[in-house]
Write a structure and sequence with these properties.
Elements: E1 9-13, H1 20-30, E2 33-38, H2 56-61, E3 64-65, H3 78-94, E4 98-103, H4 106-114, H5 124-137, H6 139-149, H7 151-156, H8 162-175, H9 179-184, E5 195-201, H10 205-221, H11 224-234, H12 249-256, H13 262-284, E6 291-294, H14 300-312
Parallel strand pairs: 1-4, 1-5, 2-3, 2-4, 5-6
Helix pairs in contact: 1-14, 3-4, 5-6, 5-8, 6-8, 10-13, 11-12, 12-13
Length: 313
């Protein structure tokens, strides 16, 4: 941590429901911080409750960036994030403030830190073909096919993670090279960014699981189903969009489609969120230089502030 300089970006990362937002607010009360959200769900307008988006009062108290920048019909890539985040960093520093990157979308953190790999662009024809194939045999079977050509990528994906399975198979079809190989190759154009990561990680997985279930029930009580119902009623959104695939939204969408009942939707959403947290923790634990802070503890926010203080003071 002693290698911190004024050009280093402080990143606050952790699995979903680990307390990142509260810790970020605690930092902002102490220093002139502006928060850049590293989250692939809070970028969407009209998706507030299920993404645990900062309230309007919290946004007035501390400037937040990369919130509500897209309609749910649109898509957003790691390349988009890197471009927008670096622009925000420059603008925040020009105002004499400190950029704090906080969130749980690990691909965005990687794109920022390491630069972007030379991945092929989307191929609509191949995507349609893969979707049609999945409609016939199911995404778990598509996951099995991915394991045959790219076992490293398949190992880190859930058999029902349709979006990422489709993208990995698309890359294989377009380039003839496994996505894992392309991701491990050095970035071709981008300059790596120096970062320091404070990682909120639970000592007991069961505590995080309980927090996830409690938070989802609180979201339901706050009107999450009505929020999803409003999106569903638009008529132009569908389950192939990244916005609708977000955990919680996808399961409640199935409820509105009559595919499952309320109880099953709740259980599936909690299970999907726990799987997401597991993937996030696996990624974080691969970072040897991160500073680990116990999540879901009474002293979490105080410890985060102390660590940031060691850097800034």
């Amino acid at each position: 941590m002693s290698q911190y300089t004024s050009e280093t970006l402080i990143c606050l990362a952790g699995p979903t429901a680990s307390g990142k937002s509260a810790a970020a607010r605690a930092i902002a009360k102490r220093w002139p911080v502006e928060i850049i959200n590293v989250d692939s769900a809070t970028i969407y307008r009209g998706m507030d409750i299920g993404t645990a988006k900062p309230s309007e009062a919290e946004q007035r108290e501390t400037p937040h960036h990369l919130l509500n920048i897209l309609d749910p019909l649109e898509t957003y890539s790691a390349a988009n994030f890197r471009r927008d985040a670096l622009r925000c960093v420059q603008e925040i520093r020009a105002r004499g403030n400190i950029p704090l990157l906080s969130g749980g979308t690990m691909l965005y953190f990687k794109a920022l830190r390491d630069g972007l790999n030379d991945l092929p662009g989307a191929d609509p024809a191949i995507r349609l073909e893969l979707e049609q194939r999945a409609a016939t045999i199911g995404w778990p079977a598509m996951h099995d096919q991915l394991a045959q050509v790219d076992p490293e990528t398949a190992k880190r994906l859930s058999p029902n993670d349709s979006q990422r399975i489709q993208r990995a198979l698309e890359i294989w079809r377009v380039s003839g090279t496994p996505m894992s190989v392309l991701l491990n190759a050095p970035a071709q154009q981008d300059i790596p960014i120096k970062t320091l990561t404070l990682s909120l990680e639970p000592t007991e997985r069961s505590i995080l699981h309980e927090t996830i279930a409690l938070r989802f029930d609180q979201m339901l009580e706050a009107g999450l189903l009505n929020e999803v119902r409003t999106l569903h009623a638009r008529g132009d959104l569908h389950t192939n969009l990244p916005s609708v695939r977000c955990v919680g939204y996808r399961q409640l969408w199935s409820l509105l489609e009559g595919e499952i009942d309320y109880s099953e939707a709740r259980l599936q959403a909690i299970a999907a969120t726990r799987q997401l947290a597991k993937r996030q923790l696996t990624w974080l634990r691969s970072l040897p230089e991160r500073k680990t802070i116990q999540a879901c503890a009474s002293a979490t926010e105080e410890t985060v502030v102390q660590e940031v203080g060691r850097l800034l003071d």
